[in-house]
Structures are given as structure tokens and as C-alpha cells.
Write a structure and sequence with these properties.
Helix content: over 70%
Radius of gyration: 18 Å
Structural class: mainly alpha
Shape: elongated
Number of helices: 9
Largest sheet: none
Strand content: under 5%
Distance between the termini: 25 Å
Order of helices and strands: HHHHHHHHH
Oligomer: single chain
Number of strands: 0
Length: 167
């Protein structure tokens, strides 16, 4: 993989950052370990890839839900998820004031299934306008990226230390 041209490594890291569930949580380590990018290059490419789909998901996923909602199996899933996401927010005015903070924290926690894709879907289920949904999602991606970057650096240093000690 280290024989690939640098631009291809950048593009692949951006693409991996765009993949749901994997997102930048997987793209940063892949960029550093597999593509031998430095930490900053890997972070920037992963961050760009992770935030590229956010606007489109927040703004345009509803027509897809409406389209697939015409078929019973999809309609049940979409209705269940939409009801689950909006029920507690609509009934609790205190939660309405903290939706942006909750969205940020949800995206910022670097665990599988808590990234920008799911955060964007939640924002759509809650009918948040893009201008209210996108900033906390981007800040969450930035925070998660910094956490993953630190963990990658610790892991990389730890692996190098173990390799040096065992030789």
C-alpha cells in the first residue's frame, strides 16, 4: 500500500471516512498504519470524508424515507425509528433546548454507530434545519477525530515500543 501515489492515499482515506459506521474512526488508523500518512494528513482527509455526506443526509434523506416508506417492511422500520427519535424530544421541553448539545455528544463519542451518519439521520428524524443540525455534528466529528488521533498515536507509539523491546 505504501507504493500508491500520495493523491490516491488521500482519496482512499477520504472515501473510508465517508463510509457509514467506519467513518473517521476507521479512516484515521488506516491512513496512518496502512497508507503511512502522517497524523495530520490522515486526520484532515478523514475529517473531510466524514463531513462531506452530512449536509446531504440532513437535507435530503427524507425523500428517500418517503420513497421506501411506500413498501410495508421499510415503512415499519422508518416509522418505528422516526417515532422513537421524536417521541421523547417532543414531550420534554427541556430536551428541546439541549438537542444540539445531545447531537454533539452523540457524534463526539468515538464508538461504532455514534458518528456523523447516524447523527445526521437523528437530526433528520427530529426535523432539525440544516443550520441547526450541521454545526454540532461537525464539532462532534472534530472532537471524535481528535480522540481517535490521540488513541492512534498512543497505539502507534506502543506498538513501536514493543517492537523495539522485542528485537
Amino acid at each position: 500500500m505504501s507504493t500508491l501515489p500520495l493523491i490516491i492515499k488521500y482519496l482512499l482515506t477520504i472515501f473510508i471516512g465517508m463510509v457509514p459506521i467506519v467513518e473517521l474512526r476507521g479512516a484515521i488508523p488506516v491512513g496512518v498504519f496502512a497508507f503511512k500518512l502522517n497524523y495530520l494528513e490522515s486526520f484532515i482527509c478523514s475529517f473531510i470524508g466524514n463531513i462531506l455526506p452530512v449536509y446531504f443526509i440532513v437535507k435530503f434523506i427524507r425523500p428517500l424515507f418517503d420513497f421506501f416508506g411506500r413498501w410495508k417492511p421499510f415503512k415499519k422500520i422508518i416509522d418505528w425509528a422516526s417515532e422513537k427519535a421524536t417521541k421523547s424530544i417532543e414531550t420534554n421541553t427541556k430536551l428541546q433546548n439541549f438537542v444540539a448539545l445531545g447531537l454533539f455528544l452523540f457524534v463526539a463519542i468515538p464508538l461504532p454507530g455514534t458518528g456523523a451518519w447516524v447523527g445526521s439521520l437523528i437530526a433528520n428524524f427530529l426535523d432539525l434545519e440544516p443550520k441547526k443540525a450541521i454545526p454540532p455534528i461537525i464539532l462532534g466529528v472534530l472532537t471524535a477525530g481528535i480522540i481517535i488521533l490521540i488513541l492512534t498515536a498512543i497505539t502507534n507509539g506502543g506498538i513501536q515500543y514493543l517492537l523495539q523491546r522485542s528485537l
